[in-house]
């Protein structure tokens, strides 16, 4: 196994202290703020020690098999809200209605897994009834920002010949624009019903919940004639766990504790491009 340590501000002596817990054969710099610790010891106790030490030093870590490379994967799957982008779109739409605190509270509970996603989305969308549909464009123009490292990550992924899927419990208004802007291959999300230029408070068709996200990954894999283990799946909330569970590599990005605990890799401090440091060149 190799141990990757990376952060926004990395000091070599701190890396050596943390890596020492896993007794690496050698440590090599793989970037200005990233190190690969080669041939480390790995067990649950070591992982727990590294986890605590890295968190305290504000470093991200990942144990990964030495043989793994980006070429092992054929599809990158991303959640949108709070993963590919920095905001929760529905919370910002609600802010246009003066209801952000109420909607955000439901969003947070759903992402922690405390409320079933379909119920939470139905409740949140209902609160938006009567809002002028122009609010969606305002959110896109004024508030939507890509997460750090998103463009660098996607450029490398696409250069490697991988396909991309954006699957979201959010809305087609935003995923359609992300698809065009970032030249993504596939998107799937919920469609807000608009009547006479205003949100009706309903979603059209089925809701994209955790089960549907997983099914979408499986459908795209079948279309591409690849196995789910050839996917990298990134997410932050409880509704991402099912699709992360079938991935070859699951990545929790600035995620809720329940997601970090179950993911193969957690990126808490670096950007999305942190996944590129995991693989030997």
TrEMBL record:
Pathway: Amino-acid biosynthesis; L-serine biosynthesis; L-serine from 3-phospho-D-glycerate: step 3/3. InterPro entries: HAD-like_SerB (IPR050582), HAD-like_sf (IPR036412), HAD_sf (IPR023214), PSP (IPR004469). Pfam families: Hydrolase (PF00702). It catalyses: O-phospho-L-serine + H2O = L-serine + phosphate; O-phospho-D-serine + H2O = D-serine + phosphate. CDD domains: HAD_PSP. It comes from the Bacteria. It is an enzyme of class 3 (hydrolase). This is Phosphoserine phosphatase.
């Amino acid at each position: 196994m190799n141990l990757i340590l990376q952060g926004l501000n990395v000091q070599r002596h701190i890396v050596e202290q943390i890596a020492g817990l896993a007794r690496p054969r050698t440590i090599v710099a793989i970037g200005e703020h990233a190190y690969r610790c080669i041939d480390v010891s790995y067990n649950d106790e070591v992982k727990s020690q590294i986890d605590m030490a890295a968190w305290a030093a504000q470093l991200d870590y990942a144990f990964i098999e030495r043989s793994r490379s980006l070429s092992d994967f054929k599809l990158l799957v991303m959640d949108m809200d709070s993963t590919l982008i920095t905001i929760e779109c529905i919370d910002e739409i609600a802010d246009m209605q003066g209801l952000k605190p109420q909607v955000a509270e439901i969003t947070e509970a759903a992402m922690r897994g405390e409320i079933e996603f379909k119920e939470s989305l139905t409740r949140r969308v209902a609160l938006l009834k009567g809002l002028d549909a122009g609010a969606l464009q305002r959110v896109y123009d004024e508030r939507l920002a890509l997460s750090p490292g998103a463009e660098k990550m996607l450029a490398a992924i696409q250069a490697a010949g991988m396909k991309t899927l954006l699957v979201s419990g959010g809305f087609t208004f935003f995923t359609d624009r992300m698809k065009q802007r970032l030249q993504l291959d596939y998107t799937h999300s919920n469609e807000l019903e608009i009547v006479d230029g205003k949100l009706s408070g309903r979603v059209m068709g089925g809701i994209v919940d955790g089960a549907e996200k997983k099914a979408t990954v499986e459908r795209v894999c079948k279309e591409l004639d690849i196995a789910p283990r050839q996917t990298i799946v990134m997410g932050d909330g409880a509704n991402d766990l099912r699709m992360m569970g079938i991935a070859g590599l699951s990545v929790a990005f600035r995620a809720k504790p329940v997601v970090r605990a179950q993911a193969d890799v957690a990126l808490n401090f670096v950007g999305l491009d942190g996944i590129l440091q995991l693989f030997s060149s």
